[in-house]
Amino acid sequence: MFEIKRYTSDKAAEWNQFVAQSKNGTFLFNRDYMDYHSDRFCDYSLMCYAGGRLLAVLPAHADGDVLCTHRGLTYGGLLMSEKLTITQAMTLFREMNDLLRAEGFRQVDYKAIPWIYHRLSAEEDLYALYHECKARMVARDYSTCIFLAAHLRWERVRRRGIMRAERAGLQVEISNSYADFWRVLTDNLGTKYGVRPVHTLDEIELLHERFPKNIVLYQAVRDDVVLGGVVLYVTQQVVHAQYSSATPEGKALGAIDLIYDRIIHHDYKDYPYFDFGRSTEYADGSGLNETLVFQKEGFGGRALCYDTYEWIL
User: Fold this and answer.
1) Of all residues in the chain, what percent carry a pLDDT higher than 90?
2) Separation between Cα atoms, residue 95 and residue 108, nearest integer Å
3) How far is CA 190 from CA 91, 101, 251, in A?
């Protein structure tokens, strides 16, 4: 029933147009975003046609005999047209499995797209994973999400942080210059966790240049010194905190509290969801960072799971 083709670069415009119109795609699946790190992954994305119409795409890469969807992205999975029915989705997964098996793949690792990122309900894939693919969950990661319309009251410690920041004269600004904040972020991650940001400074500047409305930097500044910042990934449904960090002085003065106050209560107050991102330390979602979760819950955030599945072909 389906004609399934591998993505090639000459299909970029068709791919991007489909992602923009799909019921569960975001700018992370635009090829101008995905391909910034194409040198690190062997792309094996699929485009799925029925009756000459593109009904689904699968952002993916090959890791030996494992198809992954997609380790270089926060979330992944099948992007679907609003025209795709559940019966078609079941058939599509069956036919994709046959194709992948014939092409030498042994296993599929599948990141599901959290439902808050869906423009329309789009969990046909989850039904097909269970009943067609006999998939099993191998990771459940913990994120913290705010339903902005609920207007949950912030905890006292967060409200006090705002007052400290205001008394200290901190100002929040939107900036197109990432270098100062990247030093703060890199120092913080290196000192606390012994890691570096997922993106280099050059990469985040490139992505911001390509997606200036989707990638936005907020900074807390005093006397022209950056004391903290938050990098947002803004999609149609969700404002996501991709990076958040402050200097020791910024932490003491409530810099992050002041930034989130502007983002959540002013600039993006009419969005449905704010996603703080993951608060876990290991690949399977274990190692809950309770201190980080406490901070996020203080802003009114509650649980959201990011799930990963696998099945043997």
Assistant:
1) 92
2) 14
3) 47, 42, 16
Q: Which of 172-181, 190-199, 274-283 has the lowest mean pLDDT?
A: 190-199
145: confidence class by pLDDT, cuts 50, 70, 90? very high
Phi-psi label, residue 81: left if phi above 0, alpha if psi -120 to 50, beta otherwise: beta
Task: Name the token pair of 63.
Answer: 């890791």
Rounded distance between C-alpha atoms, residue 140 and residue 279, angstroms: 12
Q: Are 136 and 284 in contact (CB under 8 A)?
A: no
pTM of structure: 0.94
In angstroms, the CA 59 to CA 44 distance is 7
- Return the axis-axis angle of helices 290-298 and 156-167, rounded to nearest 10°: 80
Q: What is the pLDDT of residue 67?
A: 98
